[in-house]
Fold this protein.
Amino acid sequence: MPNLKDIKRRIHSVESTMQITKAMELVASSKFRHARERAEAAQPFFEATYKLMAEIAAEDPFFNSQYVNPRTENGSALLIVIAGDRGLAGGFNSNVLRLAQSRIEEITAQGGTPLVMPIGQKAVDHFSRRDVKVLQTYDHVAEHASIYLAMDMADLILKNYKRHTSLQSVEILFTNYVSPILQVAERLQIIPLTDLPGSHPRRCAVEYDPSPEAVFDKLVPQYVAGLIYGAIVESFASEQAARRTAMENATDNATEMIDTLSLQYNRARQGAITQEITEIVGGANAQQ
Amino acid sequence: MSTFRLLIVTPDRTLFDGDVQEVIARTTEGDVGILAGHTRYAAILKTGALTVKMENNETRRAAVAGGVIKVSDEKTTVMSTAAEWAEEIDPDWAERSRRDAEMKIEAAKNEPDRLERANLKLQRALNRLSVHRGL
């Protein structure tokens, strides 16, 4: 029979753990709400940018931009990998890092060189332990991500894309928020912009100042920054949702454990009382 | 006077969405005025002021930190990385960021990348100050 004191101590320990998981659950849900609001606020800007880019590409039959034309090379790619700054979020970090790792292997197998830009402490740590070329690292930026930071990132990325003609594509690996219980690690190609609606010149002349290419090229950094910003905010929302679920489960487990331990404790206590009574009765009988 | 729909969007919010009479914007090729029924048009905006004549004849000015303006049949869209109305601008903050930018320019003399960014920052701060003063 377990010692009463030991059980009591375990109950206390589980209770204090539960307080922590409960608090983390609440913090995660409040951070999650803010992240969703930010993601939604950025939407109209991003949509307007994308729409105009698509229009330029579709309307101008002579349209030609370095960001649209695919490069035929050996498959080298720049991967922007977004993970969290902290752990204790279920499979959030490991899912996106696993996706990145398998993409890196794929690129290497094709004879290309992967180049990585990790965002978030966990991603930075992951790639610092591995033999991969890292362009630039960013940690602890997701919670207070600003569009200006994303613009700096976009400038850096586009500069590298222009400079290194061996880079075939720029891809972003992030976690898409599907529902409170489902977040999926995904890969999205940013450059070249191959998914713009096809060129079917319609006769509705738009006057571009100074030229369609100039307007388009001005939009590309905005578009890339918008994508990065969106992916960071979306990943952050996913991280919080994942942490909330993980902590909810932890809290549930703790409650269950406390119930079991309380039952054990009460049984042990009852056993002890029964034994004491038996001893008293036995003692009294012996005296008669 | 006839009106048209104007939409001013930045990454963190929609600054304005409503009907207006006239928009004057500063593009890289010069100032353009847009009235209802303007031809389809798109241009790059410089960091500068955006003047809007509202439906009720009130004129409002906004500081715009570069971007793109696009006129289509159904609406005119201004996409900018940052935009705020003159009355929203905090002159103390703008003044501080002007001084900050000047310091950065001083510090980044030999680095063209950082110098360029500091210069843009200075332009934004000066633009905010001048739009605020024009109230």
Summary: Chain B touches chain A through 24 residues (CB under 8 Å).
